[in-house]
Amino acid sequence: MSTAIQVEKLSKIYRLGEIGTGTLSHDLQRWWAGVRGKEDPFLKIGETNKRDSKGNSPVVYSLRDISFSIEEGRTVGIIGRNGAGKSTLLKILSRVTAPTSGSVKIKGRIASLLEVGTGFHPEFTGRENIFLNGAILGMRKKEITRKLDEIIQFSGVERYIDTPVKRYSSGMYVRLAFAVAAHLESEILIVDEVLAVGDAEFQKKCLGRMGEVSKGEGRTVLFVSHNMSAVTQLCQDGILLNNGQVELTGTSASVIQQYFKTGYDNELRPPMENYRSYNNVNSPIKLKDVFIKGSENIIPKLDMNTQPEIRLSLEVIEPIHNANVSITFYNVEGIKVGVAFSWDDGFSLNVSPGMHELKFRLMHTMLSPGVYMVSVGINQSTHTTSWDGIHHYPLFEIENQDNVKQFTHRSWGAVHLNSNFWEVI
Amino acid sequence: MTNRTNNMISDKTVDKWDMVISGKKSMFQLNLKDIWNYRDLLSLLVRRDFVSFYKQTVLGPLWFFIQPFFTTVIFVIIFGNLAGISTDGIPQPLFYMTGVVMWNYFSECLLKTSTVFKDNANVFGKVYFPRLIMPLSIVVSNLIRFGVQLLMLIIVLVWFIVFENYSFNATQYILLLPYLVLIMAVLGLGFGMIISAMTTKYRDLTFLVTFGVQLLMYATPIIYPLSAAPEKYKSLISLNPMSAVIEGVRLGLLGRGEFTWGALLYVSLFSLFILITGMLVFNRVEKSFVDTI
Fold first, then answer.
1. How far lies A329's CA from each of A90, A304, A387, A395, B236, in Å?
2. Which of residues 186-205 of B touch A (CB under 8 A)?
3. A145–chain B Cβ distance below 8 A for any pair
4. ipTM summary value
């Protein structure tokens, strides 16, 4: 198999702080250094891009000397925490911005989808926007005409196709936009996390279409997502970025495992702020912490049989009525093991402003050994996005202490099934 | 068959890349082929400009006429009647309207192109297409607008011939009109690209440009004929490439104007120089402007 994308020592530098007023003097200094044949004075002192530590250089490496290659026909997931350099890499690959140094070599046509519906004009009808958006993405008019029916059918907004898109609901808008993108013809497709929008049914359809694309048409797909189960489902390979560098390349499963392991040392609990998923400043409630009772500072090792008590520290700013708390458990493969949904258990959160602690107990679980991550969301209805929450926060590790004596090295699966009464009859 | 297999093998061993992305800024790589591949986008963008212009307006495309019409009326009142500036014996409405319609095209091309990066930052930040398509679409859609306004000018001209006993005395220079329009387009595009490239970093220029273009109009024989300009400013005004264009059009359409072949050669070379400079600067900036805007 030949290489479709080869990235060689790719770096991208961003200048921190306000760009604008100071640039003229910087430009002059840079120009003067160039005249004397010296190196750019602002590039020498770069540091890795660590958002939480204060640096003393005005420039940071968003990507630093990364190299990897992707073979034709593979589906590759690019994962990493916020600020790891995923978006920068995508922007360079889609030629939106140029790298500072290094190069990317590409074989075949490349189409990228950093956003759905780029260039949609609100006054244009759905049909007109299909043409406009398609052309922006690099399709020829006759190509779009040929696929028009298919696109309209895929979008499922046939009835509104001759209505200006400003009258569309946001869901319809996304459907139409994705339908166009899904019909791009290119050897390489780059997809950012655009599927986060749209309803579940349509998301599934898109994921299906993407799978079809990579398997059926032999296309190379690069997929960036925080949705680890989508990455597991779709991608054969993975690339893990951390602070602008490639931490690991390999099968998607191994990369996802590594992704969950980074960010905390040994058993110490990592700071929760690194995992916050909604940064809603106006949120009436803030999740301050989540931990297992009795092990406030560590990621405890629990026996398969334990029924851990999980505690949430909440800072309530405005009174909360009838809110739902949901906690989703993920294993290290990114597979969603289960969800604890407070409404299902007959509990609604009613709290007045101030600090509160919420507890609940996880019953009768037989989780397989390994580290478990939780995503927590607090919301008022199942259809709205959460006020506040965290994503993939490592909470505890399950150990096989004594329960299952046999087959200790087998692959466990997500849960240990409680089977009994074996008998030859 | 064997031949073909051999070819395939050699294709694989010798790496042939379709595209190389690197930080190097190649000055002279204009990628005209790339632009040609995106020609459908150009026509769709032109269409988008039009639709967005008159959608949800009552008067619709009529707005194309309103602006030059009223500008002409104001010019007739202020410069013609109050200030009493000469119009070289040409009826005032015809004189001013010719200047206004021509100037509009140039200034619209320049102003719209000069903000092209800022206006399209969200699209440019999300998807790649040859950036030059945007300024080109501006020039083309303004050309259509210009065509419509030219039609209005012709209607006014006919009205003057029929009802006002104006003797129509167009000269053979009228054949130069398409070329002069092209020069205007090139000038607007070239200057616009240079400014747009610089405004990505220094926003100050945007403010400078808007009123700079207004001031430039007074340094162009729009409200006065070049022949009426004081002798000491005349050579200065002639340096303005738009002067030769306006005077040339007036000579062709209305029979009066100071136009020489030397001036035409001068504006041709000047606009070519501006176009090339503009394209080079634009090309240099388009690669990484996303990070600075």
1. 29, 15, 19, 9, 77
2. 201-203
3. no
4. 0.80
